[in-house]
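Consider this today:
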Amino acid sequence: MIGYDAVSLAGLTLQDQYFAAINDTNTSVAQTRCSGIFGLGFPLNSVIWTDMFMNQQQVSRPRSLHRDVVSRISAMRKRWFDKSVLGISSFRHIDPPSYQSMPQLKRQATTSSSVISSFGVSGPFIPRLVSLGGLASPMFAIALQRDTIEIGGNEGMLSIGGLPSGVQNESLTWVPVRQYTLQQDGLTQDTSLEAYPIAWEIPIDDVFLDGVKLPRSQLCSSNISLSALIDTGNSLIRGPPDVISYIQNMLGGPHFACSSPHTLAFQIGGRMFPVDPRDFVNQVHSGDAQVCGANLAQTDVPVLGGGGYLYSWSLGDPFLKGVLAAFYYGSFTGLSQDPPRIGFLSTVPSDAGQRLEDAVSAASAGQYDLPGTKMLPPSSLSYPLSTGIGGIPMASSLSGSAHGISGSNQVGQVSSARERMQVGSAATLWCSFFTLAMWTF
């Protein structure tokens, strides 16, 4: 079901906000205190916006609105919207329309202007605030806290409407978000024929492992520019199958010594953004802190004209734990004047490799696993205890043993126009906000 009600977040409130009514507790909802997911992507990638727009227009989803999403919606519909699973909610609700029962839409039946104007009516919460001009700046920023190997680092947080206090705009490296053309199954505006963004996807210059530039994938067309999806809903670094295999060969196989630091780095906007060696690896066997594997996985190869995304890499939590990432929506009605972009500020310390070696040495000497923790969201906000690179708040120290560390972070609270809410760990952020790119519920 899709419901609507007044929704508030960090002092920001919208009336008649649509959202999915999820009542399935056969997951870890009770343990994590999470009762849903919070999408921060563009409206064109929103399942709820798609259903609402089609319901209002009384037509099927236009081909020009990225047909690849249709197959994902169909696959997800039974899980998310099946009444027999979800039950009945107590608030007002409407049933989503059936794709099979709707007539085929001709391209000219729906204009781009009607699509864009609907963002402020039935779009996701944050994009809707952007469309209505309800934020000081049309953006949000995130930082993820390290919850393994050496716990700490950046303070887990979400800043809405501006950068965290103390972080300067000029400190970030800004790059444009890919805008999909009509030929790429995107959306163009009627008058200016602008392309529109669908996901938080950016161009990347090259990829390096331990200072060696990696070859480009031979599996995708050379006509597709190299790009990456920035995605909190991804717990790994995902790349082309042949390049991932190449990396594993350079590492000596899928398993290698934890005490040997390796740096996977992405050149973005002319600057290097490394994955912290502590976030690049994971312990393979319980009780053995000396054998690790890389937090890598293969992803689908982009195909021109295939109706899908064109990115080759998906940069998930291992990458995001080592940066402050700022996501700027721009203007939905004038992208050429104010285009979407993402800014990055690397927070990986110069001695990260040595810190990994020290953590592995300490775990091996004590014959216990590398530390890890899962923390629940906090019940209150407070000011940060310290700041790190670029003025980014740092996580407070945690109490407890290396095996079962517990505690809560602290975060500063700023004005209601630029609200910041704390996220206990990468896992909590994933549960609370799920993904910035692939899904926008």
User: Anything to note?
Assistant: The CA atoms of residues 62 and 105 lie 6 Å apart. The two ends are 12 Å apart (CA to CA). Residues 59-110, 399-441 have pLDDT under 50 and may be disordered. The first strand starts at residue 2 and ends at 9.
